[in-house]
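Following up on my earlier thread - several people asked me to post the actual chain instead of describing it. Fair enough. Here it is, all 159 residues.
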Amino acid sequence: MIPPRTERFHTKKHFVFDDQSQNRDLNLYLAEPETFSEWFLQGVGKIQAPSIIAKEVFCGHLLESSDDADTIRYLRTAGHEPETNIYDVFWMIQNDREQQVLLQNDELGNVFYVQDQRAVLRTIRVIWSGFHWQLNAHSLDDPNLGWPKGQQVHYSSCE
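Reply from S.P.:
Thanks for posting it. Predicted structure:
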């Protein structure tokens, strides 16, 4: 359960990376810094509105290989909202030691669908390397991108 927050979440203040694309506080590394920086950190960065209620983010494992379009279509058909938000991703990384929700497998990872600062839906993949979290941001229409069986997908309820 993601707790409520009364203040806006400023991505640029919380996803701070050094010259080597690392955030030591989160034990996080940007595997492809250009895309995440362009889509979530440019200018004032992505700002997430406050949320006055707690939010539940669910997860499921892919039963077969899939691309983003098919995964999103499946979630919507099943009555789920595929979109989460950047704060959800941050909170889950920050609290994974206690919550243990994120898949920690160096071959499979965690997929989130998040709107960037221009309100374009993007894929964020968070994977455990054995030493730190790696974060990648991808375009949904990337023809070379697909997710293997077992990948964990995070989504919201349609309430």
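The CA atoms of residues 26 and 155 lie 22 Å apart. That should answer part of your original question.
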